[in-house]
Amino acid sequence: MRWLLLKDLQILRRSPLLVALLVLYPILVALLIGFAISGGPDKPKVAFYNGVAAGESTFSVGGEERDAADFAEQLFDAVEPIRVSSREEAIEKVRDGDALGALIVPPDAAEKLRNSLSLAGAPERPTVEVIYNGEDPVKRRFVESTIEARLAEANQALSGEITKIGAGYLDILLKGGTIDLFLRKFDVLGLERSEQILRQQAARLPEGSRAREELERVAQFAGLAVDNLDLSDAILASIGEPVDVKQTVLNGSRTALDSFAVAVAVTVSLMFVTVLLAAGMLALEREEHAFGRLVRGLVTRLELLAEKVVLSALCAFGLAALMVVGLSAFVDVAWSQAPLWLLALAVGALAFGALGVAIGGLAREVRAASLLAFLLSLPIAFLALVPSGTVSPTLFDVIEAVSAAFPFKPTLEALDRTLNDTGQSVLGPLLHLVALSAAFLGAARLAVRRFD
Amino acid sequence: MIAADSVTKRYGAREALRGVSFSAPSGERLAVIGPNGAGKTTLLSILAGITEATSGRIEVGRTGWVPQEPAVYGKLSVRENLRLFARLEKVADDAVDRALEQTGLTDRAGDELSTLSGGNRQRVNIAIGLLAAPPVLLLDEPSSALDPRHRQRVWTFLDRLAAEGTTIVFATHDLAEAARHGDRVLVLADGELLFGGTAAELETAVGPAKDFEAAFVAYLRERGH
Fold first, then answer.
1. Portion 55-74 of B in contact with A at CB < 8 A
2. Of B154, B131, B138, nearest to B83 (Cα)?
């Protein structure tokens, strides 16, 4: 097997174009897939008109001064604002395609907000205007959801503050205190004290008298109100924030998207190099008519297949390991797990190599083998990347079953768990890969019977 | 020495060889002839150990195998090809120089195979078959890709090998070549061995004929092929 291995390496060394394509193409595809996975859409441009006069954007909530501009800044984390000086200019920007949307804050927004937060003000709510450009439905949807999400956040924050104010007013009604209204301070007695006073006054009246009975009824009402309003703080809080969110991740790790993209990119490269090389080099033995000469006692068919698997796995392993080292300059890689991710790379490469010789055995010709290897590899990769919830449960089960029949998914799992140190065991994916290697090698052994 | 007894080969329902029996002593040159699909290559593949017979018995020692298409690597040089197979055959490296010399390829030893003509590739193909100095050399259409000058050189060489005791079994479509270089001919048709004897005996069997080719065609026709 050693001589065949050296022979194949010699052939590869004399095929620089093939080697360059085998190295560069998978890396390019892998990086593109990696970028596609890790990169979200660019920040969309949004025209922003703030009609509120400078210094007028502040408002008071619960005794604290707030600036509406702070909420706008949060929005600008997600979009790229084009500041304009009028509503018309904002609309023009959207119409011309300079901006995908426009956010218009009318001049009276802050005043209306202030009034709505004050007991003395009018109950009219401020309204911000959002205008979309529907040319690109994907980006439009992104702008729409981004603005909606940010406005919802702002509304929620305000609602929380307003709830606090409401609760404060109720507290004053309950326990007594001072309320600012129309620039004057009003002393409020409070229901608790009212009840006390009423009961004291009632006790001074003759028992059974009509006046005493009426006072006691009023005191009873005050007592009831006190008992029930005492619970209002909690009720108001639940209205301000009706659902408490507890985050839990099921079925998988909390790997950062960039780190996961590295695992995907390396797995894609490993797959392309190994599968294409193993399939092509096995088919080449037949195309060069050497297969018959070799298997007539010089090597067994299984040895020949194993040699192609080892050859392709060696080349792909080296390339993938270099890729990890290179990518580690940009993304964190768990170096403490290096022996494990190197093992995952090696076992994954062997499994892909076994798949490659099965393809080479079926196709029998170099061109057909390369084409088949290529045509099969991409769907296998994409299938393994379909997230749950994006298709129906039945279809997802089918996709899972198909993915499990090929080495891409277990290799990706093994690499993700080791490169990103997710704390999950790598034994399962590795055993899965060993089983797949044996199965594909068996299939290749059957396929090369047709080589005779 | 080589012997086959009732050798049968089936590919599914199709019978490629039907109870073929023959033997050839050391130093004999045995030509296997027959129309297309007669089973010539199948018979040689079974003798070479590439294909297993469905039934029957083969007695053959170490063989050298020269397939119809040159089984060589285009990206390797002539010497590298020979050295690879010498190592796989577990023979010493000096066998490479000997085979190069025997086939007249010493001056082309460093050339990459893909740059050689079809004739020279076939000579490399034959040289590989000779590496282990086998007592039996099996050749499938050995001269089909050669020009007359190279063909003559190859046959001179093969004739000399036979004279030195190597049994030569070759399949060919060139009936003149079979008559000239075959001590005996085996006629196969539809997997069946129809005739085993000298070219002269076959001509005698069909009566007066213009030449060996005409006698061969008449022989096949008489037997319904």
1. 65, 67, 69-74
2. B131
